[in-house]
Records
---
Amino acid sequence: MEQLLNILNELHPDVDFESREDLIDEGILDSLDIVTLITEINDAFDVSIPAEEIIPENFNSAAAIWALIEKLDEA
Amino acid sequence: MKKYVKTVTAMLAVLMLMTSMFACGSGEAEVTHETQRVEEWSLNVNGKELYVGMDMPKDLGEPTSYFEAASCAIQGLDKDYTYGSILVKTEDDGKTERIVGLTILDDGAATTMGVTIGDSRDKVVGAHSTPKSESETALVYAAGVGVIAKFLLRDGVVTSITYTLGE
Amino acid sequence: MEVAVKKRILSGVCATVAVIVIWQLLTALMTPKYMTSIPEGALIAEYYEETSPHQVLFVGDCEVYENFSPITLWEEYGITSYIRGSAQQLIWQSYYLLDEMLRRESPEAVVFNVLSVKYGTPQNEAYNRMSIDGMRWSSSKWGAVQASMTEEEDAITYLFPLLRYHSRWNELSGEDITYLFRRDRVGYNGYLMQTGVRPVTSQPPWVPLEDYTVPQTCMDYLDKMREICEHYGVELILIKAPSIYPLWYEEWDAQIAAYAEAHGLAYYNFLAMSEEIGIDWERDTYDAGLHLNVWGAEKLSTYFGKLLTEKHGLTSQKNDAVLSGIWAEKCAAYAAEKANAVSPY
Amino acid sequence: MLFTSYEFLLFAALLLVGYYLFPRAWQWRLLLVASLVFYWLAGPRYLIFLLLTASSTYAVGRWMDANLRAQETTLTEQRQAWEKEQRKSFKAREKKKRFRMLLLGLIFNFGMLAVLKYTGFAVHNVNRLLHAFGAENTLNIPSLLLPMGISFYTFQSMSYLIDVYREKVSAERHPLKFLLFVSYFPQLVQGPISRYADLGPQLTAGHAFSSRNVRWGLERVLWGYFKKLVIADRALIVIKALLDEPASYRGMYVLMMILLYTVQIYADFTGGIDITVGLSEAMGIRLTENFNRPFLSRSTKEYWNRWHITMGTWFTDYVFYPLSVCKPMQRLSKFSRQHFGNAVGKRIPVYLATVATWFLTGLWHGAGWNFIVWGLLNCLVILVSQECVPLYTRFYRRFPRLNESAVWHGVQAARTVLLMGVIRTLDCYRDVPLTFRLWGSMFTTFNYGDLFNGAVLDLGLGRADWILLLIATAVMFAVSLWGIREPVRAKLDRHPTAEASAVALVFLLIMIFGAYGIGFDASQFIYNQF
């Protein structure tokens, strides 16, 4: 989880990722950030997030992203 | 993995090259109204080349006869200048006077290709090539943007030649 | 806070009523008045001011409303007449005007000037409006609209003229305000007096046409005119007014003469008879031969009056006191305007 | 049928009345008939292509759905017999089959779009290539009929197909209901491009008459007509005059074109969408918003989240994301990360995908190099500002107060709108080298005096018209700003008299000041050649 948080902080240092639940809805993460994030995650956690998983529910909060990573990990 | 990098960069380069090359060269020739005047369909009056659509030159000299007709109610004058064998019809709306028709009245004048009243249908087609449309009594040529040249025929002989606005 | 539905409906109805009222006002404001410029536009509507019937009804374009004078016909022959003409009035517009008038009165003769048989298709939106807008709404007006519309026109703009004239908002003038609800009279029973003098100096050049046959639509409407006259027991008289432009080709003249012959109608080509009528092309025209001026019109009317009485059995109405009173006023107004004209005689 | 034609007004009025007279179960059938009639009036032969797209998409969708259900049943049956590995490979195999069918559907429909819309363009360029290499004979450019709204309904159908493949949506069973989704007429003209999940169910659900829906919907339609007829069509007169001989209107006229075209296309496009969304709302159908006050965007990226939103989300969901997360792209980024370092590696997929997406967006707008260059320029601006982010952060750290000041937001918004306006003139000048020359002429030709010496008056609009255009534009933006916190219609809703008089006033303003009728010929929607 920590690794995910440093990736996120590297993207947007001024955003408190632990608590926020509306990263997509509030437009904090836009399409360019999401793609950069996915590239980082795929590389760091050796998973490959398919395009159909790029939906607001999966990216609205750090926890949601982490849940997605775990789901893909053992699928 | 190597081949991916090469193909992608190559593809990108081609894309950029194609865009710039085509994009920058895609301008059509500058088409202005003057170049649309097709020399073939103009008539020479007192040394001046007249064609349908142009403004009536002021210094054309005295016409052999002149007739003026105001349209029924709305402002604007239709004027007919006859210069020997050529009739020049114009419309004058008070600001500009534009030529709307040129007619060859008799064999005293001819088209740029030497066709005049009394010539045969074949001579017309021979001189001006195939017309846009033809019928028993008329041959119609496209003579510039929005201008047609009409040869009227009776029993295969040209009775009138008129250049007017029309499709 | 649920707004009472009643209140909503009420405000809706009020707003709709307001829009309708304002719409009528705006239509009256924006519709061209044809008072100070282009008086020809006001001719068609003037007919409804007439208070007495007419023995003769003229229909046609500027070749009738500027070449015949009903006042002269009354003064010299006691014949009551009205000219229902407008600028470049096409044959189907003449027919529908006739159709409308024959339902309101029963004349003895109808006179149609045949020049408009040269136009087989709708010509010009501005002229259409001048010929049709003045008509009151009836099946005849709807027929005229359908027959006259060019492609760019929509029938709805005749039903709601504001849709056509709204763009005049930035060219309104004093005239649009003073004539909001009333109109002045421009013609004398449809005759537009012209007092200028400009002699004929040249003839329009003759240019051959590709096809001389009169368009079939025109022949159809000629038939319809003849049939409606027969239906109402009115005599149809065809004429060609003495105007040297637009050029009246002999081929057309021959076809009209043949048509008249075939149906037993009188056809007078006054252009050919201008000698006999005594028209002096130096002094009787105000625009070098296109139309006669008041003196020319009076000569033509005198001549035509003689024909009407001798050949068509029209009798004088001067013994009718009421009519004489009405026409006396008309003649006085006519004489007044003619007085301040400089006569070439 | 133009939105601004009397026929459309009659068509819409009859449909609206009929819609609420029909029993609820039959409402969607009326909508379908209306949509097909609308399409038929645009050109009977176009209908064939629409039906082709609808039927092919429907078929592929049903096939994939059936395959998925078959896969689920076999999986539950074999629950005990197969181990995890076997089950996984079976699922992968089935997914591959569905993917192939999806590809078939995509190629067929996008192929049709490409052939109909871009053959002329492609052949034209091949000819130029042939000329470049001296070949004399060239291919003749076939004149293909371009079905109305083909770009919109094709994109909408393909988004449905991809959503079915992604199992986000289950395929529509009823062929006619699906045909309605594809052919629903208001959005055929210029969008919005709806998603099946949002629009599908609404279309076929019955809607009871609701005075609120009808009032709000028709008020929005009226406002759409105000923007279109009073502003857009009036501005178009000058734009057409300038475009008559673009080369001779340089300097100040180019700046005028930029500003005028920005206003014209905003009023025309948002007006058209207001009519589309308003009419649907009057029938109880909520379409996705296509604009969100784009003139307030402070950066190009934000602009493209507020302008033509449904096109933006379509390209993001179905081109940008798949492209940037697909296997080859990920491997490419890993490779470049190893060879060119982390910074480059991270950016490769994003930048490549962005360029490709914008290239396609440009191409989608029209078959011409000016559209492609328009797309790539937008992309360039976005990527450059993406790179400058560290620059901006440092700048704002030095001027912290600045970031909050409304004035600065205004400056940013003006800059963005102007920049978008400049690039967008590629749309109307249609010729790339000419456009660049004209942009340059803004700084070389100094005829800014023409603005005041009356020269502008012979571009088709008199003084009164110019003043009216400026006032109406100001009113349009003011009303838009007034409605930020709470929609204007909500405010009006609370005061019936105010609402009724506002509607009456706007109606009369359109009738008087609308640029319609014999004096002005009603313009085609800018996007109508889609």
---
Amino acid sequence: MRNGAEILKLGTLTLVWWCIIFGAVWAACYIVGILIPMALTSYESDAARMTAETCRALTPILSVLVFIPINAMFMVLFERRGLAIFTVRLGPNRVGPDGYLQTAADAVKLLFKEDITPRGADAFMFTLAPIVFFAPSIFGAMPLLAAVTNYHELFQIANLPTGIFFILAASSVPVVGIVMGGWASNNKYSLVGGLRSAAQAISYEIPLVLSLVTVCLMAGTLDVVQIAKQQSGGILNWNIFGGGALRGLDQAISLKFSSSAPALQELSKSSFEQVLKSVYLEPTAQALGLGAGQEGLAGIIAAFAVVLLIGSIWIAYGLYMTGACAEINRIPFDLPEAESELVSGYNTEYSGIKFAIFFLAEFTNLFIVASIAAVMFFGGGDCPVPAWLGTALGGPQIASVINQALTPLIEIKLVDPPTLFATIWVILKVYSIVFFAVLIRGTLPRFRIDQLMDFGWKRLIPLSLIVFVLVVYAREFVNVHVGT
Amino acid sequence: MLALSLVTRAKDSLYQICRGLKTVAMHTFREPITQVYPDKMPDTNIRGRLALAVNPETSEHLCISCRQCERVCPDKCIEITAHKSPETNKLELIEFKIDHGLCMFCGLCAEVCPTSCIINTNDFEMSEYSREALVYDLRKLTLSQEESRYYFDRKEIPLPKPKPAKAAPAAAGAAKPAAAGKPEEAKSESEAKVADAKAADAKDAKEVKQADEPEKQTAAPEEKEETENKEGSDKSKD
Amino acid sequence: MSETPAAKPPEEPKGLGLCGQFLKDHGIATTRLPDSCGVETIEIDGAHLEAAMKLLRGSSEIKLDYLVAISGVDSADTFDSVYQLWSYTNNNELIIKVRVKKTDVVEGQLPLVPSLARFWSAANWHERETYDLVGIRYYGHPYLRRILNVWDWDGHPLRRDYKQLVDALNDKASGSMR
Amino acid sequence: MATDTEVDLTPRLKTDEMLINMGPQHPATHGVLRLILTLDGEIVRHTEPILGHLHRAQEWQGQNRTWFQYQALIDRVDYLSGMFTSWAMARAAEVVDGCEVPERAEYLRVMVSEMNRITSHLLWLGTYLIDLGAMFGFPFYPFREREKLLELFEEIAGQRMMFNYIRIGGVMRNPKDAWLSKLKRFTEEFPDRVDEYEAIVTQNPIFLKRTKGVGILRKELGMDYGITGPSIRASGVNLDLRRTKPYSVYPKLKFDVPLNDRDGDTFDRYIFRIREMRESNEIIKQCLDMLPQGEISGKKQIAGLRVKAGEGFAAVESPRGTLGCYIISNGSDRAYRIKWRNPSFCNLSILPELLKNHPIADVMAIFGSIDVILPDVDR
């Protein structure tokens, strides 16, 4: 650990920036969503009630609008520092204390730069393109909000029953912005970049959607809040581990843990088997129409199905990440802005604030993609520690201590512990995924456009279909989330 | 069969990608190689800014106005003004200009200097707001005694022999204490250098002149001076 | 060590060298010049150049199939086009010179030398470069155009009589020592 | 990409070729090269390189500067391998002049040149991966090692790239013992670093896809165009001047010249450069062991340095190929004519052939793989 100091610095930086992001969003939400309505309740007029309602309704939008720019700023810094660590450098460490304000300064610089519209460009389209590119990421964030805040009442406004469908629809709009920008720039490189982006987004949308459909199929719902809820209860319940395929195991182990008294050992052993039997064997036997004597066969099939399910879902996750990387134009799929070929692709001609918006949207998209992965595969705001292990480690005591400490804050509704912990877990998960994306960015070269198409259509799409079919069959034999 | 080969290939590819990712990720635990430049000055050995050294022991100026550096400079960025002192019949340095905007830091001037007067310092921070400011004059070029000692030690240049005492009053140009005359006897090695160069110059002085013509046109009066200088330095050699 | 001292007083070499003999056998007359640092140097008439090159390149024993460089030289009274020939497979070396007398060059025109570019791709850019810098026109070249200087450059910079035009932009600024 | 089986749509659909100007200001042209590409869709049909944006009249300066002054300028011909340009001219001048070079100087020359070959290949490796799109992580690793070598150069020659170290008749300065031991340490750890690069790059499936079978250079074509260096060795032509026309002390050193047995593609050119780096490292090791004591210059380094009258051509094996210098001297202190035979210039001339019928995304993959350095092209 000769690099301990640097890693520590990155950790501190991350913590500080998280506090800044959270503080800002928190303050905005608290003031608009709780403080003002509370203050208004004393006036018993229609206007006051209306205002209070409007404030509440605006809270989710406001939170997203506050969150996205600050978060994007931090993500750029995070990526630069992360890459610096991988490449044995220091990274930006001059502006502000240890470079904390580097990207803030960059943002300010971009805002003050001259906003150039090249001659021959279609000025209207040229201006519209960044907006079209950026706006959908806000739409996409809306339904996720409820899922990642542990369905806090304030953020329920956009709780669509077809949440994931809406998110996917929103996330496929930005490509229109790219094509628009590429075409309006009146530059051959931009045009090629824009067209490439269109081709790429269309191709990689399919494996991306199919892998998410696989998850929805297991969950039996399109509602992201529902999907997040289903996975609560520790790491073994997450979709990435078969979406409840290990639930029986979980229950069985928890039984075993709960009965620590030696007298109950015998009982627990039998109940352990019983639970396993009831969760795995019986549904399988039922589905296959097997009789009482064929439990062994049913057990083998059930075990096989569980393994298959978990394997398939891991592949689906890989497909999702691949498709998502292509969707948001990150290495190794950054062909629309392939620097060595197309100078800078669709944003060659952009400068100043328009470029800043492109930049912002790129990182916001990365965040949204990562948070979709967190919600769909990694249990949303769920604590990864299973309840039985948590109990063994003294989790409830810690929780009560924290609750005790937070009581004054909870009373004035400043803190809602379920929401707080859910968001912390989501952020941790999302940034782990982002960190992995940074690692990929530091390693892989870029595809060529025809190879990219080949890879998308000839490899990923068939694979995602296979995974889909496998999951359809495997979930018949395993007691997944559905019906529990 | 096809499916199997596809699976194997996919597996191999994944393995190789993961190997690359692992190698990159393991770099996390290496010490960063960045040099934090303005906080910690690098210990360089570069041929940096040119400067004129003084004798580290007696602090007299080492330049003997022999114009070797001026002649050898590929960029013609050195300009020396000197005149022959009527009393001592020796060359006295009046002005020494180096345009660092033209200089390419090849170090040839430092190589040919018979008295190790002109040297490349380690300094590379010379940014200025105008090109004119990059033209360094004698005052700006001359190093202090301590700096000279530092560079003489560092570059392992043998110390020059001190000048006989009688030349000191002649050099007492009060405004420019550094602009002293040259030491009477250069070291034997540097003398050989001078002799060599002189011999070479004498042979094809005509040719050199021709090449220098455009530069000399502006400074026509200097032309005469140069021939004088040559005589002077020749005499001093004798 | 291929370093052999230069022939100090350029003594006249006796007889023909390996390549000169080979060319003579195939009916191409050459003149032997003083060796340049131990490498056989021959002069050849421009009219026979192409045939000689084809022979040297194609023959199995000599096989000078590596055209290292073509240089143009503005000599005292001739324009030389100098061909450095090596071999990829053996150690043969040859320098061929095509000399055009300055008195033969029509006033206001460039000296003419036949081009090799049509059957030897390596010659293409070298000839363009020589044309650009020394001003030897290689007739039969598919695309004889300036390569290093801009297309509207005046004169050929490596000629002895070339005068650099005064550049108004980079002329002496008052503060500079240039 | 189905160009051969294209359905004839011409009667109904008008298609046209598109001209694209790649460069001179383009992130991946390694300087200022301008390529006029005629594209049919994304397929390159015709390429015309426009050179000369970096023309600095090096040959003209050679005629108008003294030998001593010009030695300081020629590092700029190929700034990534300044030792080789110096060496080429020094050799040519020595051949013409007939002066002896002390053995210690020869060993030092070999040592610094092989170091320079490593730095040049390392820089190529980094920038090539940038060309292929690995923009952010990998390229820093070769540069890290290059930095170490540059520091050694700085210590021995006084500058990091414009060394002016190899002089006519010898070398400029004697290295200190500390320098030699630092170099020794570097040679010991360098193979591990190359293993690291290979772990990241060589078997990477995306890299393989981008490079295998792309830009195949046929042996005959390469010989027709006079291609040299690793590019032609990767196509199976045994042309390494260190072996075929041995100079300096190379005959005394043990090293392999890797040779391919088929027409090389972009990947082969990559792998040959990697191998060459390992070989260079071995050469440095041997030189460190064999370095004799003695003089370092056989000719006095004075301002009026002269070369005897005569003409001659000498070449060295630079990282990019045969770097030759043709000198005509009339015995004065400056050359009558200096002609540079630059490997980049000759290697670049094959680019239109290599690019033909490749998609535009391969332009940089191929252009990068022949390792051209623009100052060397334009001089």
